[in-house]
Amino acid sequence: MPLRKLLSLGKKWVLERCNLMLRAVFSRLPIRNHVFFYTIRADGKLLENSKCVYDALEDVEKVVVARMLPHPVLLKPKIYYHLLTSRVIVTDDYLRYLRHTQLREGQKVVQIWHACGAFKRFGLDAPSLLSPQEEKRTHSQYAAVCVSSEQVRPYYAQAFGIGMDKVQALGTPRTDALLNEKTCHVMREELLRRHPEMRGKQIYLYTPTFREKDGKPCYYDPQIEWDALDSALTDGELFVIRRHPIMKDSYLGDQSFRHIVDCTDEPTSQLLTAASVVVTDYSSVIFDAILCGAPLVFYCPDFDAYERNFYLDYPQDLPGPTVFQAQELPEVMRSVCQNPPLEKLSAFRSAQLGACDGHAAQRVAQLVRSYLD
Question: What is the DSSP letter of 304?
Answer without folding.
Answer: G
